[in-house]
Amino acid sequence: MKNTKRCCILLSSLWLSMMLLLTGCKGTERETEKGSIRIGVSLYRGDDTFINNIRGELEKCAKTYEQENSMKINLDIQDAKGSQNTQNDQVDRFISLGCDVLCINLVDRTAASVVIDKAMEAQIPVVFFNREPVEEDMNRWDQLYYVEAVAKESAVLQGNIVVKQYQEHPESLDLNGDGVVSYVLLEGESSHQDSLIRTEWSVQTLKDGGVPIEKITGGIANWERSQASALMEQWLEKYPGMIELIICNNDDMALGAIDAMERAGISGISVVGIDGTTPGLEAVENGKLLGTVSCDKERYAGAIFTMAVSRAVGEEIPPEIELDEGKYYYCPQQIVIRNR
Pairing mode, if any, of strands 291-295 and 333-337? Predict the structure, then answer.
């Protein structure tokens, strides 16, 4: 509730400053006359649990803003269903409809230049989120922004969950008492920067924290619960009684691993995730998930929305949204473990 109020305060403050500048900004005059702001949002995949959580928070921000101000927010949210071509078509549609700003969760981070070309030609600012365009693309225009939870921080915090557990209860991780924690690793997309970074730094954090680990196997599950469940089912059969820890790049894959264990009637294996999705947090509270790393989703979506509204009316992004290099916003994260 505190973060929701923070979001609302930021947006109310933004509206007051907009009113003071009505005579000095062409974009602000145009939007005030129109009485509305149109925001085009394209999601890489609408069935991704974390992305769906962010979508819900964006919708809440829009409703709160409309309730507290006289400006109508037309939030046009589209699902690219994992296709960059579909997403490019959605961007074309947003531009044809006269969107004032675009919020893009890229399907393919290396294909950002196509979206940027279209936006630059139409002079429409873009707030990218969750999937970071390469640095060269982000440097092409001063109307490009990016919102994320830092992948290295996520991984280090995830690793610290396991380190703390091992320090306090080593027997809960070293199930066979051989002095080594044998683990498997479920990874996101092979080309996704967060997957690569989370994989590297979660394992490195365990080593740095003194946890004696040995990798059994790993695989790509593309952030998906069903794919992770299928892989885990194979591993449980292939490595019976050997797996003691499951490290997952996100909560959906962690839940998929848990699904497979429940089908097999296996318990006691520790599982850690990242994202702090609603079902992930429930799994932590129910004791099925050792822990996860949660970014403040209200703050995350609030930053996207506030940046979008600011740029839509030609305003500077308010100082409350602390930007790195004038374009990057990094959302705070925290460890979530079960209250014992």
Answer: antiparallel
270 and 172 Cβ atoms separated by less than 8 Å: yes
Q: Which residues pair with 247 in a beta bridge?
A: 185, 272
Cβ within 8 Å of residue 166, ≥6 positions away = 173, 174, 181, 209, 210, 211
What one-letter code names the amino acid at 251?
D
Which residues neighbour 2 within 8 Å (Cβ) at sequence distance 6 or greater?
A: none
Query: One-letter amino acid identity for 282?
Result: E
Q: Walk me through the domains of the chain, giving residue ranges and CATH numbers.
A: 2-147+297-330 (3.40.50.2300), 151-295 (3.40.50.2300)
Q: Cβ(181)–Cβ(148) under 8 Å?
A: no
Confidence at residue 34, expressed as pLDDT on a 0 to 100 scale: 58
pLDDT above 50 for 31: no
C-alpha angle 282/62/127, rounded to 5°?
90
pTM to 2 decimals? 0.85
In angstroms, the CA 188 to CA 228 distance is 10
In order of 16, 167, 229, 295, 325, the CA distances from 210 in angstroms are 53, 9, 29, 26, 36
Q: Name the residue among 37, 4, 58, 62 with its Cα closest to residue 301.
A: 58
- Between CA 51 and CA 44 the distance in angstroms is 8
Amino acid making up residue 69: N
DSSP track, 27-70:
HHHHHHHHTEEEEEEEES-TT-HHHHHHHHHHHHHHHHHHHHSS
In whole angstroms, what is the distance from residue 158 CA to residue 161 CA? 5
Q: What percent of the chain has pLDDT over 70?
A: 90
* DSSP run (H or E) holding 312: helix 297-312
Alpha-carbon gap, residue 54 to 42, rounded angstroms? 12
